[in-house]
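Q: Convert this sequence to structure tokens.
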Amino acid sequence: MTAQQTDVQTTHAITDVFEALRQGLLARDAVAICALYLPDALIFDLAPPLGKPIDEAELALWLSSWAGPVERQTRELRIAVSGDLAVANGFVHISAPTHEGELAAWWMRTTTLLQRRDGRWLIAHEHESVPFAMDGSDRALMNLEPEAV
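A:
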């Protein structure tokens, strides 16, 4: 097997993690989603606090706050691998129906660190963010869409 074949296999294995995450969100399956993370994974997501471990009960509560499937679309995903570590970054679009019959949707930036343990790629760290207005209002800019980087 050549280095290029290994790189392709590794990239596919990592993108499979993101596809499993997408499928878990669609199914609103907190157990399946949490199985994609290392037990000591550190999460920097949009909700407070600044950092936290993956929490199955909290995730299940968030998933149940939507009236239907949570859609996750990734754009411009870049993956770099070195040994048993990989970093992926890009843009993610989340959309889900609210219980009030509306569609909530936003783009965010994401950087994910994955670690290969026992031959399986798992999420070790995840950082998601949205820009905020620098005009003194400090409001989150949830209506932005990615431009080519």
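The domain at 3-129 is CATH 3.10.450.50 (Nuclear Transport Factor 2; Chain: A,).
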